[in-house]
Automatic annotation (TrEMBL):
UniProt-annotated location(s): Membrane
Keyword Transmembrane helix recorded: yes
Transmembrane segments: 25-46, 67-86, 106-123, 135-152, 158-182, 194-216, 236-260, 272-295, 315-334, 383-412
Keyword Transcription: no
Main localisation: membrane
Keywords: Membrane, Transmembrane, Transmembrane helix
Name of the protein in its database record: Ion channel protein
Length: 428
């Protein structure tokens, strides 16, 4: 029997006409450039302040720059300064950072100055957090506020997507990371049109953000580890084991997160929570040394400069202390993201695996450990693969990491995330 021709025709997703996409280019470029400038501005300001706080100031006081006493003083003082801003600034520098991930809420503009200030203070003072979460939050709010006034006919939901993509592109110096995050987010939503139609405007914003950051700040993630050639079966086994161990270690921190957060939450007031967190971070810095301070990007370059300079025990100590510092800083109220400290912890763990078993190539150990930790802490599969791969300048590592991601993902999927609901219960 002859079927109706309409029934025989394959289902085709309709494409968006070019005339619909072209008007999004200029707003996307504007959001991308603005978001990148905000990120670079915060990081440059924080770096200048850090150079003073951890250089001429302790020198003038006759105290060692990274002595135990100065690390205690600086981390406690940072807790006091951030706590004062959170207490007194309009909007209290935004909601509890433990409740915020990469998908930021749209805050009123009055909150943003306080949030920018506490982010710069945190980055300069030494707590183990990165700039990504608060800067994305600021850029989302700015884009939504300006977009509603300058392009009132545009859908309101488009501005947060553009700002998030632009900031991620600027953070990593490439729009690829943003494209991966967008595609992962779209996978859980009902969307119309082709994938590239949906990512066209965010990818444009991410490209503008990445190019702006690259031209101004020159971000780089290549650790210049020993060259990695053609992988063999032992490399696949090593990567799978290291990634799984890292995922388990990351999940231990995730499991502890609501309990540590609850301890600080009982203090109730930011002038108690944040200084107390600073004291705990000072104790951890005394245990792990100055490499466990700050967001960790420059510190991982120092670790990777000579992979064989430390023992497996020393690398294990750096890993545990950095994870604990991340856990405390994210729980007590410091505004910051968790990706960069997790990269440091993964780098230390991977180099520790190489020190313990010399047959584990440093590039394999580092990339696999970073992959496993990021999967546990961020639950962002594409971002975890991307960050782990860019640390090692070798195309061959990508196939190895794809294999290693499978057992690691089975260990983390469906379990609590390192993000809490307002009532303190973990997000799943």
């Amino acid at each position: 029997m002859v079927q109706d021709s309409a029934q025989q025709a394959p289902s085709v997703t309709p494409a968006t006409p070019a005339r619909t996409l072209m008007p999004t280019i200029l707003p996307a470029l504007a959001v991308g450039i603005l978001s990148s400038l905000v990120l670079v501005g915060v990081e440059v300001a924080a770096e200048e302040l850090q150079n003073v706080l951890w250089g001429p100031l302790p020198d003038a006081l006759g105290i060692g720059r990274y002595s135990v006493a100065w690390m205690f003083v600086m981390l406690f003082a940072t807790g006091v300064a951030v706590g004062l801003v959170v207490w007194k600034a309009p909007g209290h520098a935004g909601p509890d950072p433990a409740t915020i991930g990469l998908d930021a809420p749209v805050l009123p503009p009055v909150v943003l100055p306080g949030l920018l200030l506490v982010t710069a203070l945190m980055l300069a003072g030494g707590p183990s957090l990165g700039p990504e979460n608060p800067v994305i939050t600021v850029n989302v709010a700015l884009a939504a506020w300006l977009g509603a006034r300058l392009v009132p006919r545009a859908p309101g939901r488009v501005w947060p997507a553009l700002a998030e993509a632009a900031t991620i592109g600027a953070l990593f110096g490439t729009p690829v990371a943003a494209a991966l995050v967008i595609s992962e987010a779209l996978a859980g939503k009902e969307t119309r049109g082709l994938l590239w139609d949906n990512v066209f405007a965010p990818l444009t914003a991410a490209t503008a953000g990445a190019l702006t950051a690259t031209l101004i700040d020159h971000p780089s993630f290549d650790l210049d580890l020993p060259s990695f050639g053609r992988p063999d079966w032992s490399d696949l086994l090593a990567a799978a084991v290291v990634a799984a161990v890292a995922a388990v270690l990351g999940m231990a921190a995730v499991r502890a997160f609501p309990y540590v957060h609850g301890v600080f939450r009982r203090l109730r007031h930011p002038m108690l929570m944040l200084p107390a967190g600073g004291l705990v971070l000072g104790a951890l810095a005394a245990l792990g040394g100055h490499l466990t301070l700050f967001k960790g990007l420059e510190e991982i370059a120092e670790l990777a400069r000579d992979p064989d300079s430390r023992s497996a025990g020393e690398y294990a100590l750096l890993t545990v202390v950095k994870l604990a510092a991340l856990l405390v800083a994210a729980s007590c109220g410091f505004r910051g993201g968790r990706i960069f400290p997790a990269v440091f912890a993964g780098t230390a763990l991977g180099l520790g695996a190489h020190a313990l078993v010399p047959g584990v190539h440093p590039s394999i150990g580092v990339s696999a450990a970073v992959l496993g930790l990021l999967l546990a802490i961020t639950r962002q599969g594409w971002v975890s693969l991307f960050v782990a791969a860019v640390l090692v300048a070798s195309p061959a590592i990508i196939a190895v990491l794809c294999v290693a991601s499978l057992p690691a993902w089975l260990l983390v999927t469906g379990r609590p995330q390192m993000q809490l609901r307002p009532d303190g219960t973990p997000v799943r």
